[in-house]
Design a protein that fits this description.
Radius of gyration: 31 Å
Number of domains: 2
Largest sheet: 2 strands, antiparallel
Structural class: mainly alpha
Distance between the termini: 99 Å
Shape: elongated
Helix content: 55-70%
């Protein structure tokens, strides 16, 4: 059975996560020869130039699939199979470097959060990518600025950089402060951070942090648009209400005084 699964891993990247699930669930019954064959297969398919045949690229959640492949090497090292340690080290190094480059290129923090928090197939446990990174003590990835940003967002609910100057409430709160209608402090912080590409206090921010600022600005624009629409809608409803009151009073006066009253006033 395991030989069939190993053969399908080499032949096609389809349903690769399911195949990895079977491998991990039945890892203890793998022989040393099958483990060696599995490492050879991954060294072969991960170096394929065709993106459709490379499971790290063709699968939807690149992070989860890569970590599950890395987990195979980690389990082999836990079993202390010294004849396979060199192959495991080479494959692990390749996977970590690939993930690091992926993190540097991926600037969508919310998408990364979804990828890392997506559950991993397991019969009893409920784990995600962050959990198995902690379990395998992958310090190099856990200390990566992008992963730190995701952890801040997941566990603290906020970004590591402050975006309070972009808050919509701050825009209208400044009307209550001196000078009235002076939004200079808000605009200065926005323009400064954009013009110097996030370079504040002589500390260069990462590309991810810069993109978070961009997302915050876009969110501010959306908030302002929604606020404007709400104000306009309230004004329309107020106008309709005033017009309705005026019409009701007109009808009431007409019923009381009749048409003669309007003829005299005209």
């Amino acid at each position: 059975m395991m030989d069939i699964i190993l053969a399908t891993i080499r032949e096609s990247p389809r349903y690769h996560e399911i195949k990895l699930f079977y491998i991990h669930e039945h890892f203890d019954i793998l022989s040393i020869q099958q483990m060696n064959q599995l490492l050879d297969i991954y060294q072969e398919i991960l170096s394929r130039q065709n993106a459709k045949e490379n499971p790290m690229i063709s699968q939807f959640n690149t992070i989860k699939v890569t970590l599950l492949i890395y987990r195979i090497c980690w389990k082999i090292e836990e079993k202390q199979i010294y004849s396979l340690i060199t192959k495991c080290s080479l494959l692990q190094s390749y996977l970590i470097n690939s993930l690091s480059r992926y993190f540097e290129l991926q600037n969508n923090i919310l998408m990364l959060r979804k990828f890392m928090s997506e559950p991993i197939l397991h019969l009893t446990e409920r784990k995600d990518s962050l959990d198995i990174m902690y379990e395998m003590n992958m310090k190099e990835l856990l200390q990566h600025p992008v992963v730190v940003e995701v952890i801040n967002l997941v566990y603290e609910g906020e970004y590591s950089i402050s975006s309070t100057s972009l808050s919509l409430s701050r825009t209208f709160l400044c009307m209550l402060e001196m000078d009235i209608f002076d939004q200079k402090s808000i605009c200065q912080r926005m323009i400064q951070n954009i013009s110097n590409f996030g370079d504040t206090n002589n500390k260069k921010q990462s590309s991810l942090m810069y993109n978070i600022w961009k997302q915050s600005i876009l969110q501010r624009e959306q908030d302002e648009m929604q606020f404007t629409n709400i104000i306009n809608l309230l004004l329309i409803l107020f106008s309709v209400w005033v017009n309705q009151i005026h019409n009701d009073s007109y009808v009431e006066i007409k019923d009381i005084f009749g048409n003669a009253y309007f003829d005299e006033t005209q």
